[in-house]
Amino acid sequence: MTETLAIGESVSVHTEAAEGVLHVLLNRPRKRNAFDLDMVRSLTRAIDARPADIRVIVLSGGSFFCAGADISVYGRGDLGEIGELTRAAGALVETIATVPVPVVAAIEGMALGGGFEVALAADLVVAGDTAELGLPEVSLGLIPGWGGTQRLTAQVGARKAKQLIMLGQRLPAAQAHDLGLVNEVVPAGTSRARALELAASLARSSASALAATKTLVSGAERALAYSDERATLMELFTSADGVEGVAAFVEKRPADFSR
Q1: Could you confirm whether 9 is annotated as catalytic?
Q2: Are the C-beta atoms of 1 and 34 separated by less than 8 Å?
Q3: How many CB atoms lie within 10 A of CB 224?
Q4: Burial grade of 159 (CB within 10 A; 0-12, 13-18, 19 or more)
Q5: pLDDT in tens, 94-138
Q6: What is the pTM of this model?
Q7: Residue pLDDT, tens place only, 63-91
Q8: Annotated catalytic residue within 108, 117, 132, 221
Q9: Spacing of C-alpha 53 from chain mean position
Q10: Which reaction does it catalyse (predicted)?
Q11: Helix/strand/coil (H, E, C) string of the chain?
């Protein structure tokens, strides 16, 4: 079965289901698959409306996994719109983390900001060897607000998480693998094929055992301070640094946080 999901005139997510595996393709290539509200809702709906026989979900983004939030939304400065996107994205990432089937992310190009936060919520991550992952929000005077501060800390420890977030470091795939953030590094362009291989193997396993494993292993991350993180992000949007950081990004100039 192949289905295209769309909201309004946006066709931002494609799905294909076969032999117990749902492949979900992020499809805003001109925006490097950056998330606007339509895309967040389309991806959430693709997961929630999966056919009953789906046992594994694969997320991919073509040659560029995801650049994070669509900064044009932030640039408009509408706190209602920004808040709606932030809440919907937080719910999306929680859906990925809690859906009772394994989620495998296939990363090519870059997974930045919200794209990395989506990968952090996945159960398995396969990355092409030229891929990079990172949380660059501090450069905008902001913080990761879709679970990144919490999940990254849970997965790599506080000291390393502070380094990666505070410095906005981009991790090459091999380094992300060394830190346990990526399960496998494969030749560039082959991550989706490998993710589908893993999904096929998982689909032959006990669905109840996989769901129980996901619940138990991920349990510690579910008790973290996600609501505090989102509230802090919303406060930063109205701070002098947040306004300057977003404006500088939109205007393609260095941010001046010394003012």
Answers
A1: no
A2: no
A3: 15
A4: exposed
A5: 999 999 999 999 999 999 999 999 999 999 999 999 999 999 999
A6: 0.90
A7: 999 999 998 888 887 888 888 999 999 99
A8: 117
A9: 25
A10: a (3S)-3-hydroxyacyl-CoA = a (2E)-enoyl-CoA + H2O; a 4-saturated-(3S)-3-hydroxyacyl-CoA = a (3E)-enoyl-CoA + H2O
A11: CEEEEEECCEEEEEEEEECCEEEEEECCHHHCCCECHHHHHHHHHHHHCCCCCCCEEEEECCCCCECCECHHHHHCCCHHHHHHHHHHHHHHHHHHHHCCCCEEEEECCEEECHHHHHHHHCCEEEEECCCEEECCHHHHCCCCCCCHHHHHHHHHCHHHHHHHHHCCCEEEHHHHHHCCCCCEEECCCCHHHHHHHHHHHHHCCCHHHHHHHHHHHHHHHHCCCHHHHHHHHHHHHCCHHHHHHHHHHHCCCCCCCCC
Catalytic-role residue among 132, 137, 221, 229? 137
Please tell me the class of the 1-189+220-258 domain. Answer: alpha beta
Per-domain residue ranges of the chain = 1-189+220-258
- Has 117 been annotated as catalytic? yes
